[in-house]
Amino acid sequence: MILSIESSCDDSSIAITEIETKKLIYHKKISQELQHSMYGGVVPELAARLHAEALPKILEECKDYFPKLKAIAVTNAPGLSVTLMEGVTMAKALSLALDLPLIAVNHLKGHIYSLFIEKEEIFPCTILLVSGGHTQIIEAKNHENMRLLATTLDDSFGESFDKVAKMMGLGYPGGPIVQEKGLKGDENRFDFPVPLRQSPNIEFSYSGLKNAVRMQIEKLGENGLTEQDICDIAASFEKSAVAHIMQKIKKLFKTKNAKNFAIVGGASANIRLRTAIEEFCKQKGMKLYLSELKYCSDNAAMIGRVAVEQYKRADFTTIDDIDVKTRIKEF
Ligand code: ATP
Ligand code: FE
């Protein structure tokens, strides 16, 4: 079995995965959303402190599995450096104490492997990753051949929901709240721009749309936003945010074919996005895969699933070599 640890942002999570069967034996996650909500976003120092409290508590529940472990896996990039350090430090200590090899896992690969938790692997597959920090399209041919096709120039899809929610004082994370408000709003009341509409490149940008929303809020805000204003802003913003992704995906598939398409990451919970992609995949004859909602946001089960593959090809690191990275350029 492999014990995996995840602490790249605001979820403390540990999982145990069986190597042979790839079965998830144990999984626990303690989320810090509530604690960060009052700040309208994740406060790194607070997050690190909460990981330091939560991770040992979860680990204690796993003690009985220790004799069965063959490796310790941990997310080492990308993420917040102070929170990644919490998981990596614990993993180093376990590796030393139990004399087990260490596996460093790319968190974004983890989001992709959330599709494969106790499920068939899907290769080849074109994957849209929409999370709090990333908006990417990845071509996954097999476990070792994954290529980045598109990414964002600035903010991510999920992050733009967080920022729009913060502007309207709606709390964190913004995605579910903005989505809920949007369901009650008029998506045609505000004409927010669809980013990079004219650009021939397959790339994303959310800062312009975010600023357009900010300006609209300031315009209305002199007398305070009504509940209807909030719902209309949410609906109109969401319409442009999703249209942007769909325009780029349509552009991409003008010159490319695929059998399988998948959406992963916390923001893949967005209903408007899911519906638009479902329709597109139907038109194109592509099979659409979604990870289970409980594995969409950060968790150690997906990290353990990646680690099983790395274990099989002896892709290990050492306590001297492992480092944390806030960003990564390649898969
Ligand atoms: P990363 O993996 O890039 O470091 P993360 O793991 O912190 O980021 P996730 O947990 O995958 O991000 O996703 C959280 C993000 O998803 C938040 O930005 C949140 O607002 C967004 N999100 C969640 N639900 C929805 C929704 N229904 N609509 C839009 N965005 C959503
Ligand atoms: Fe994540």
UniProtKB/TrEMBL annotation:
Catalysed transformations (reactions):
L-threonylcarbamoyladenylate + adenosine(37) in tRNA = N(6)-L-threonylcarbamoyladenosine(37) in tRNA + AMP + H(+)
Q: Does the keyword Cytoplasm apply?
A: yes
At the top level of its lineage, which domain of life is listed? Bacteria
- Compartments (UniProt record): Cytoplasm
Q: Which cofactor does it need?
A: Fe(2+)
Q: Where is the Gcp-like domain?
A: 25-304
Record-listed Fe cation binding positions: H107, H111, D298
Primary location? cytoplasm
For this protein, what is any one GO molecular function term? tRNA N(6)-L-threonylcarbamoyladenine synthase activity
Note on cofactor = Binds 1 Fe(2+) ion per subunit.
Described purpose of this protein according to its UniProt entry: Required for the formation of a threonylcarbamoyl group on adenosine at position 37 (t(6)A37) in tRNAs that read codons beginning with adenine. Is involved in the transfer of the threonylcarbamoyl moiety of threonylcarbamoyl-AMP (TC-AMP) to the N6 group of A37, together with TsaE and TsaB. TsaD likely plays a direct catalytic role in this reaction.
Q: Which family does it belong to?
A: Belongs to the KAE1 / TsaD family.
Q: Which NCBIfam families match?
A: gcp_kae1, T6A_TsaD_YgjD
Output this protein's name: tRNA N6-adenosine threonylcarbamoyltransferase
* Source lineage: Bacteria, Pseudomonadati, Campylobacterota, Epsilonproteobacteria, Campylobacterales
Q: Which gene encodes it?
A: tsaD
